[in-house]
């Protein structure tokens, strides 16, 4: 749209029935004091309000042709409401300020003229530059300064105040910037200013007199979840992603894969690994790897069933490859970042939206935890609850003593005790999660929205609640469906049974007779070991798995030759075989699907924007 007016002022309004009429009147009077008649317009960007704001805005527009009402039936978010109103505006210079008029309106002419004179492309009021007069109590000033310092540090901004709601833009410059701005809520101001500086636009920051209107406090959802995650997202887009060329990405991805292979040698010295496998039958160790490999197509089938319940189809072999890649990523990247890699792969190759991709992963994790909790049984909870592990831990400490891993002296008994506690907690959380999901699915009351509102009273909480509702809703569709629950549950039990069979073959490779009782103990030991490594307390779960496995096997058996050191060796080889199969499958799948781990992690930044769209639709 070609500009037909000199200035357009947009007032973002959400439930402003008490103040919007006065704000519009003051704005019109102030603009008329320094601009020719009919050269400006005031747009009330009413954002899905639940009060009388729409009626008031419509009346004001009908009474004065300088006033326009931009209405939305649904909650768009502050940033998106501003963006759509600006695109529909008629002005050459575009302005907005908060409707509470916290910034003294005597600064409006200066704000407009800095851009209208062609001296700057963007102008913003500031409460922190020298000369500003801002009455900010500590509860507002300290978080604001902290936030702005983070933006300056991570996003290399030269400005001191990014969130002052008092800004003006050259129309052409802003519309150019909006093509790249992704945030639709409170971070919108910051992202526009940061991208303007990166694009070389001239940005003016000038002091204003600012008086806080109403009460404000740090909000967990908006300030921590929202603003913090957006700083990280923008930093990745502007600083990291441009450097991830295909050549760099492929090279870095290859290096990281080999790092995954070397993790066992970093955290378990080569000599310790060699000692552990001395005397083991190589053919049986290889056979254990083949058996473990058989579990992977089952993982693909299970994932296909989950996606099918969520109305997305995928062939088993493709999904098996995607799982291989994501699990390899979990060995390489911290905090199970490989899960995000799978979400990227199924989105890029099968158009599965990010919220659904992450929900399907959550379903898989829930069934994994339930399966290994069931396989571990009540014995685990009984041992931990009664302190029955104390004597076993003491026996292992006397038998094994301490060992050196990665140049550090560790106490296997202490590690095992930690692993047992972690396993018990994770198992209980898994059961509790399923109970909550099923209960929520059968209630009329929206527990998600109630929970979010309990920790946040900001309007941004509605957006976050919408994203979480979509996510939880997808999980509920599988968990609350009896047929899907049975199919996915049986598949999960089969997968983890093969995991145990792999360990039993390793027992045989060490010359240990596999009796029915030892088989039962192995089910318990492998289950506890896998529960223990769910939390990302060590790379690839190394250490916790071995500790839990050792304490269970030695504490519950009296098999000749099965000392603590031998049990530790079995645990090391068992875990090593599984990790090697995972990495080998990951390498093959990356070559087959032409996926680089670093590219996949970089591309998952789109999840935020996609989730935002979904959240707006649901809110």
UniProtKB/TrEMBL annotation:
Source domain of life: Archaea
Record domain Glycosyltransferase 2-like: where: 8-176
Keyword list, A-Z: Cell membrane, Glycosyltransferase, Membrane, Transferase, Transmembrane, Transmembrane helix
Biological-process GO terms, alphabetical: protein N-linked glycosylation
Organism: Halorientalis persicus
GO molecular function: glycosyltransferase activity
Lipid bilayer topology: Multi-pass membrane protein
GO CC terms of this entry: plasma membrane
Annotated NCBIfam families: flippase-like domain
Protein name, as recorded: Glycosyltransferase 2-like domain-containing protein
């Amino acid at each position: 749209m070609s500009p037909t007016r000199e200035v357009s002022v947009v007032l973002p309004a959400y439930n402003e029935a008490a103040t919007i009429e006065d704000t519009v009147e003051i704005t019109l009077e102030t603009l008329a004091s320094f601009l020719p008649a009919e050269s400006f317009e005031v747009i009330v960007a009413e954002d899905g309000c639940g009060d009388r704001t729409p009626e008031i805005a419509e009346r004001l527009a009908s009474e004065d042709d300088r006033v326009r009402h931009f209405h939305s039936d649904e909650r768009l978010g502050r940033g998106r409401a501003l963006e759509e109103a600006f695109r529909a505006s008629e002005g050459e210079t575009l302005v907005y300020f908060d409707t509470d008029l916290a910034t003294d309106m005597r600064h409006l002419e200066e704000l407009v003229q800095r851009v209208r004179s062609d001296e700057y492309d963007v102008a913003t009021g500031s409460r922190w530059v020298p000369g500003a007069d801002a009455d900010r109590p500590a509860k507002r000033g300290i978080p604001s300064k902290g936030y702005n310092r983070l933006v300056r540090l991570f996003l290399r901004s030269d400005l001191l105040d990014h969130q002052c709601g008092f800004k003006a833009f050259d129309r052409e410059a802003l519309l150019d910037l909006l093509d790249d701005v992704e945030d639709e809520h409170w971070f919108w101001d910051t992202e526009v200013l940061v991208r303007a500086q990166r694009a070389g636009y001239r940005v003016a920051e000038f002091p204003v007199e600012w008086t806080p209107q109403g009460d404000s406090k740090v909000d967990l959802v908006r300030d921590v979840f929202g603003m913090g995650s957006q700083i990280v997202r923008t930093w990745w887009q502007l600083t990291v992603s441009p450097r991830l060329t295909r050549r760099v990405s492929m090279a870095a991805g290859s290096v990281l894969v080999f790092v995954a292979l070397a993790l066992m040698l970093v955290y378990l010295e080569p000599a310790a690994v060699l000692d552990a496998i001395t005397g083991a039958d190589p053919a049986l160790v290889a056979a254990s790897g083949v058996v473990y490999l058989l579990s992977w197509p089952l993982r693909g089938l299970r994932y296909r069933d989950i996606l099918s319940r969520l109305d997305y189809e995928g062939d088993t072999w493709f999904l098996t490859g995607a799982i291989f890649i994501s699990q390899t990523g979990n060995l390489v990247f911290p905090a199970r970042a490989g899960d995000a890699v799978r979400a990227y792969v199924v989105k890029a190759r099968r158009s599965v939206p990010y919220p659904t991709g992450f929900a399907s992963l959550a379903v898989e994790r829930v069934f994994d935890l339930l399966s290994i909790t069931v396989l571990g049984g009540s014995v685990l909870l009984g041992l931990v609850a009664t302190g029955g592990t104390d004597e076993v831990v003491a026996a292992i400490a006397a038998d094994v003593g301490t060992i050196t891993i990665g140049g550090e002296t560790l106490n296997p008994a202490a590690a095992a005790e930690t692993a047992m506690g972690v396993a018990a907690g994770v198992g209980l959380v898994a059961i509790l999660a399923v109970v909550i999901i099923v209960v929520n699915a059968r209630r009329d009351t929206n527990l998600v929205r109630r929970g979010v509102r309990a920790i946040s009273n900001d309007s941004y909480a509605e957006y976050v609640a919408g994203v979480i509702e979509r996510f939880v809703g997808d999980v509920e569709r599988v968990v609350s469906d009896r047929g899907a629950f049975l199919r996915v549950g049986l598949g999960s039990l089969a997968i983890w049974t093969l995991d145990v069979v792999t360990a039993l073959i390793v027992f045989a490779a060490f010359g240990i007779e596999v009796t029915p009782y030892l088989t039962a103990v192995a089910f318990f030991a492998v289950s506890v070991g896998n529960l223990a490594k769910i939390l990302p307390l060590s790379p690839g779960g190394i250490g916790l798995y071995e500790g839990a496995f050792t304490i269970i096997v030695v504490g519950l058996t009296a098999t000749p030759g099965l000392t603590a050191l031998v049990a530790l060796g079995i645990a090391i080889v068992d875990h090593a075989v599984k990790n090697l199969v995972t990495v080998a499958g990951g390498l093959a799948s990356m070559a087959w699907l032409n996926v680089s781990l670093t590219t996949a992690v970089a591309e998952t930044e789109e999840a935020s924007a996609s989730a935002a769209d979904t959240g707006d639709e649901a809110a």
